[in-house]
Amino acid sequence: MRAEDSSVQYGGGDAGSGRHETRNEQRDRNWDDLLQELRVMQTGTQIIAGFLLTLPFQQRFKDLPAPAVGWYLTLVALAAAATALMLVPVAVHRELFGLQIKERLVAAGHHTVRIVLWLVGMLVAGTTGLIFYVVLGPWQAALASGLLLLGLLASLVAYPTLVRFRNLKQSRPGRP
């Protein structure tokens, strides 16, 4: 048996997917998928960050109460943190790409992207809340942000868990 065949047989390919790839091909695909996810998140984060960075130059900004200014500065920090963390997988890859450790790069990138997902979700909820604060008031802002944070929990925790559970249930041998 060739080395390529053994890697497909022993975990290189996705079980039952019809995909026949070596372990290295799978790592390359996983890395490419990860980078594509980062590209999508980066665009949205940059748009929100750009929006936030223009606010102090608006006439009404100086009239914001202190809590809204604090909220705003927190959002700017979240946007900066999310943007900076999106650079980490690329920086790690640049530093380590020739060392034949792509599986570790993918794992490290995966963990970073999970953190970035939460930061971006909080940024979206917080930015929406700030807009509601300015337009309608603090209670409406808290409600809007709270509902979006609940949606974030459902989207990032509950739904993936449900999909994983259903997949495991369907992949069990002898299922009806």
Describe this structure in words.
- The structure is a single chain.
- The protein is an all-alpha fold.
- Helix content is 80%, strand content 0%.
- The protein is built from five helices and no strands.
- It is flat, with a radius of gyration of 21 Å.
How many beta-strand elements? 0
Quick check: average pLDDT?
A: 81
As a whole number of angstroms, the C-alpha radius of gyration is 21 Å
- What count of helical segments does DSSP give? 5
What letter string, H or E per element, gives the SSE order?
HHHHH
How much beta, percentage-wise? under 5%
- The gross shape turns out to be flat
Give a quick set of tags describing it:
mainly alpha, disordered N terminus, 176 residues
Topology diagram in text:
Elements: H1 3-12, H2 23-54, H3 66-96, H4 102-135, H5 138-171
Helix pairs in contact: 1-2, 2-3, 2-4, 3-4, 4-5
Summarize the structure.
The chain is mainly α and 176 residues long.
